[in-house]
């Protein structure tokens, strides 16, 4: 990008063939390579997404809207984890700790101090980022698996704090988290507070989806600019990155801070959606779930994080819906044998193994193969 | 003073169990550079197998031996069918696979045996040995003795046997090991078999009196992580010292923290092991006895 203007402007001969360019998806300039929206197809897709945003809450019932709302919240956290693990290559098993941090911060600021959502949502993110800055330096000193285990330790230390800092967290019984309020307007319940014909789920959908879009665009912009390239250089070959002048300390700690910001903001939304949180919601299993989301979705892609979040939120609901048709599944929670919980966990574990062994680039990889196949049809590479 | 001694013996016994679990981590890590997050679930499965065999009127020792053999087979099968495919892939991916396996094994155990508490049926049961004022569970004595014997066996194995030396060579440099004719695949398989067998023994001691058999004991293995890390991931001796250290810290904190420092909150001993681990890692990034990785360009 820093080369003389004349060199940058020189078009590739292929650019003269717009048809070929469109079919093949060839990138013929840096600007094209970096573009967020590429050509008419990109604008059409954007328009379709905007239409979906308005149409979805009107068409889909509350049960499926709640699936989408949980997906949206999880997607924000998964994008954050993907920035850290997928783009920077720093494995974190402690993502749920930062999510919990955000949820409790939201509860304290919104509930005890009665601040509006436009204050507590960013504040939760910033507090998470600040704690991420404290953890970041470990990433400088530790490599790979040792770092993963320190972040695992973080989950247990965090759980101890959540259980024992009763004035703020309410201890083992948990605490209430306020709805997203601005003044008297409850953004998660526009029906009661503004008199609009919307249910809670519909209101929350309209509130949270723009935030996902914001998170995704911000992540995309980080990834395609200088810090993002530094992240990927560190992931791909750390020593080489340092030699060409990437400040490892700065970008590794930065990646932790950004990812923790996402996690804590998602946690604040999660708490505000559920309205009540307990320490058990932020232990090891959810941390693994977020890692599974980016594995299933696609490591090192932003849209893959969203796809993975959707997939993993969806599966338990689908299993639950299908369970009467599956033999040997007992539906009561207390009985032994193959309960719904056990079955869900089995599928969850098997999914992780399956994707890593057979489809390491995740849903994003399947999607890009499908695209290539359609675009180049009837030829194949 | 007698309280302190009592706690110290308890701590060392608990540490012995952590050490046995950590030895499972270490042997797989040493050979294949993978942290096996499923070790805790192998421990769990091993303990349930011993229980199941013991139910069929097999003598206790024979049950343990049979379970250890079966677990070695399971370890081999996991390596052969799943992890063999992952050679050359990012370490992160392999570790996540072991996490996936851990979840699957834990739920299979829960599906087969359910969530009731069970008694393992060890022959020494609840008997205690009285040394003056000091009372010790037989389980503790067996644990400490077993850990000692196994550590000695590991030392002999790594120092004097062909397989052990081959494993060390593989750990240092896989290509060089292949070049001098060490069957690296065989070494990987052996490491997993040993991990499976040792998990059975750790499982027996983990759920013997005063503990009981329950699917949640697999989580106890998570507290053996600090043990393996404190000692250094590739050092069997370090695993034992780390295990004993973590066990002692846990029991002593549990014994004294409520009086000495109640402001740290309830159950601080659970967090204390991880705190110890983080402190050790800040000072020594490769644990107390781990090998420092030298990076070459």
Q: Characterize the largest beta sheet of chain B: strand count, sense, and whether it forms a barrel.
A: 2 strands, antiparallel
Whole-number count of domains of chain A: 1
CATH topology of chain A: ABC transporter involved in vitamin B12 uptake, BtuC
CATH class of chain A: Mainly Alpha
H/E series of chain B, N to C?
Answer: HHHHEEHHHHHHH
Q: How would the global form of chain A be characterised?
A: globular
Q: Calculate the mean pLDDT score of chain B and round it.
A: 87
Kindly report how far apart the N and C termini of chain A lie: 31 Å
| Tally of helical segments of chain B | 11
Oligomer: heterodimer
Low-confidence stretches of chain B: none
Topology, pairings included?
The complex is a heterodimer of chains A (381) and B (297).
Chain A: H1 5-9, H2 18-24, H3 30-34, H4 39-59, H5 62-87, H6 95-112, H7 117-141, H8 144-164, H9 166-169, E1 175-176, E2 181-182, E3 185-186, H10 190-194, H11 200-223, H12 226-236, H13 238-243, H14 248-274, E4 276-277, H15 284-297, H16 302-322, H17 340-358, H18 362-376
Antiparallel strand pairs in A: 1-4, 2-3
Chain B: H1 2-32, H2 39-55, H3 60-81, H4 91-113, E1 128-131, E2 134-137, H5 138-160, H6 162-172, H7 174-179, H8 184-207, H9 224-231, H10 236-260, H11 268-283
Antiparallel strand pairs in B: 1-2
Helix pairs in contact in B: 1-5, 1-6, 1-8, 1-9, 1-10, 2-3, 2-4, 2-8, 3-8, 5-6, 6-8, 9-10, 9-11, 10-11
